[in-house]
Design a protein that fits this description.
Blueprint: E1 2-7, E2 10-16, E3 23-26, E4 33-36, E5 47-53, H1 55-65, E6 69-76, H2 80-91, E7 100-101, E8 108-114, E9 121-125, E10 146-149, H3 160-169, E11 173-176, H4 180-185, H5 187-192, E12 199-203, H6 204-218, H7 235-239, E13 241-243, E14 246-248, H8 250-260, E15 264-268, E16 274-277, E17 281-285, H9 298-311, H10 316-330, H11 343-353, E18 360-363
Parallel strand pairs: 1-6, 1-10, 2-8, 6-7, 10-11, 11-12, 12-15
Antiparallel strand pairs: 2-5, 3-4, 8-9, 13-14, 15-16, 16-17, 17-18
Helix pairs in contact: 1-9, 9-10, 10-11
């Protein structure tokens, strides 16, 4: 299958700090933790390493390892970071013929500080990633079976409508994993083209950004899933979604999203697994129990793996299991790509995972 990934390319510098060398503060009434760095103090690290990352690069590598013919449409600077990314993609078998170099800004970079539960704090410099423009969107790039659009920001997010339009004109399946910035600052453009999306992947925080719009269009709250004393509902399924001071039930959210257009809606929920809604049902797989070394890149792995399996004709249950298993492999490593599995290894781990976790479904 020919695939195009569009979006960010970064160089990630990851610092792993021992728990006792950095303080963590947890909020009592919110799902929020803070890593506290002391001003003017040098903190000893267990490891500092550099890796290639960014949404389009992570997903391109993921899809290439699954055996697909992948090209990445990315914006890079004229610098050594760009050369590192291009060399890495070539090693992974990803075509860089649509990679664009730009003198106006350096290649993007991130610094990740990882401690305690390894859910890293990330400092991001987007650089050239924000400079994608219509002239970079060559028509022949979209003559593929699957176009995967990762998080876009600033000027690059303004290209989202044209990316979607060109993809559909070529008959491609369109999947996207937008970030909070795109869903908030460019929400109008995103919603104007949501009916052309085949697969929409968000985490529960990103889903929350859409709640005020959905409530205004479809109403607040909504029906609840039936309770089962023998099988308690996952927390998100029980609590529903919250955003902008509004609440929407779990069922109401997915029904509303299907009304807007996407056929497949993936909502990832970290250590609690992930949900996939089709027009007829919601599927849930819990996370695979693993030792977590870093959470960055798990969302990219889940969304791109799911998209590949859906494009290949897999069932919702099978596609979501593949997504959960591949993302669980990613979090066993500090970087975003080392854990990405090749197809044979993924299928084997999916078979093993069925011994420890089980799928649940609800009618929608």
């Amino acid at each position: 299958m020919k695939v195009l990934t569009v979006g960010g390319a970064m160089i990630d510098t990851i610092a792993v700090i021992a728990n006792e060398r950095i303080e963590r503060m947890s909020m009592r009434n919110a799902d929020t933790d803070f890593l506290l760095l002391e001003e003017g103090r040098k903190v000893e690290a267990e490891e500092v390493s550099t890796h290639c990352g960014g949404g389009a690069v992570n997903t391109a590598v993921c899809l290439a390892r699954l055996g697909h013919d992948v090209a990445a449409l990315i914006k890079l600077g004229q610098d050594a970071r760009a050369e590192t990314i291009l060399s890495h993609l070539a090693e992974e078998g990803v075509s860089t013929r649509y990679a664009v170099r730009d003198r106006r800004a350096p290649t993007g970079a991130s610094v990740l500080v990882s401690a305690h539960d390894r859910n890293a704090a990330i400092f991001t410099f987007r650089g050239a990633n924000t400079l994608l423009e219509p002239g970079d969107l060559k028509r022949d790039a979209f003559a593929v079976q699957l176009v995967y659009i990762s998080n876009l920001s600033n000027q690059s997010a303004d290209c989202f409508p044209e990316i979607v339009t060109k993809s559909k004109a070529e008959g491609a399946l369109v999947a996207t994993n937008p970030g909070v910035r795109q869903l908030s600052a460019r929400q109008g453009d995103f919603l104007a083209h949501i009916d052309k999306l085949d697969i929409l992947a968000v985490n529960k925080v990103e889903a929350g950004v859409l709640i005020p719009y959905l409530v205004g269009k479809f109403g607040e709250h909504g029906p609840q899933l039936p309770s089962d004393v023998n099988a308690p509902l996952p927390e998100l399924a029980l609590r529903g979604f919250t955003g902008g001071g509004f609440d929407m039930s779990f069922i109401a959210f997915f029904r509303a999203m299907h009304e807007l257009g996407p056929r497949y809606i993936l909502v990832s929920d970290g250590k609690h697994g992930a949900f996939l809604a089709t027009p007829g049902q919601i599927v849930h797989w819990p996370a695979v129990p693993v030792k977590v070394m870093g959470t960055a890149g798990a969302g990219d792995a889940a969304a791109s793996t799911l998209s590949a399996f859906i494009a290949d004709g897999a069932s919702a249950e099978e596609a979501l299991l593949a997504a959960v298993v591949n993302s669980s492999s990613v979090v066993e490593h500090i970087d975003t790509q080392t854990g990405l599995l090749k197809r044979e290894g993924l299928l084997q781990r999916m078979q093993e995972a069925r011994k420890f976790i089980s799928c649940r479904t609800w009618s929608l």
